[in-house]
Design goal:
With about 375 residues, the chain is of the alpha/beta class. The chain has 2 domains: about 240 residues, Rossmann fold (3-Layer(aba) Sandwich); about 100 residues, Orthogonal Bundle (Rna Polymerase Sigma Factor, Chain: A), CATH 1.10.1740. Helix content is about 35%, strand content about 15%. Helix 3 links the parallel strand 7 and strand 8.
Amino acid sequence: MARIEPTVESNCTFDGAFRLDAGGDLPSPEVRYAVYGELNQRRDNAILVCHALSGSARVADWWPELFPGVFDTSRYCVIGANLIGSCYGSTGPSSPNPVTGVTYGPDFPLVSIRDMVRAQARVLDQLGIERLHTVVGGSIGGMQALQWAIDFPQRVERAIAIGSAPLSAMGLALNHLQRLAIQLDPAFRDGRYAPGEGPEGGLALARGIAMLSYKSPELFSQRFARRPNRNGEDPYRSYADRFDVAGYLDHQGEKFIARFDANSYLVLSKAMDTFDLARGYDSERDALRRIRARVLLVGISSDWLFPPEDVRDLAQRIRAAGHACDYAELKSSHGHDGFLADMDQLAPFITAALWRPSRNPVPITRPQVVRTANL
């Protein structure tokens, strides 16, 4: 598949301080964004795609299967924005503080999903986009889509959140252990490590723990079972020799440390933890009553990081608050990663949602879907 390049890729720099939910601010932060396609004359064809924890503004790099079929750039203007706190062009822990000239490192402030969404709104303001045709994302990207629908109800026609809901206690526990793995690495140095000298072992271990929550027992049994590591190691003869599944997890960690920053991992995983639909409002119901967009929530059958029953229950609460919300479910053995691995199922759901009238409930009628039409 040929790599699809953005029509425009640039940085949006904010004037002055950007206030944060937890207190404090970021002085003149930057947000990296990428645009695929062009705005039409009515400027009503913009789709904002929100990335997951280790994604970037370059949507076609990590969701290539959706171009050009679902995200038809002759029809839509598709926009990606790198999260504040990340390490792919937006202001984050590895960026220099413009006030001190020193890299933020562990002094980077706590940011929330709400902060990230407000930063994206500022980018859209500078691009002259008042209203979104659709906002869509998976995992932490789905959290952003939901936050958009609540905080900016007049700016969103459709919101699609895939494999996403407020984290359960199990999800919080897994994120805690991942951050702890990074912080206990001697190379972490309280977050003040030099470039290229970070806590590689801790970050790789954190990624390995995360991969357990991204996959499913069924998939691991199919792929690895109890086979020795495919490079010929014999775990029955040596402590050091691994089973195949251990080799896979170690390989995933090795790949990850080459492309991600440990402090950014702490920042973004903590933002996932603190995602709470009621934050800033009197109650979750009051927050959900603000929604004006047509919402589609997609659960993943084997996801145990965001169990489908949690996603389905959130859809019920949105409908109980008086707003249209469809629920669809991917039947996948890929676990949470189903939103990246099972494009043959996901693509029709998104396509149908893009074409559906924004306010009138229309049921999904795709053969792959396990659907609750009237929750």
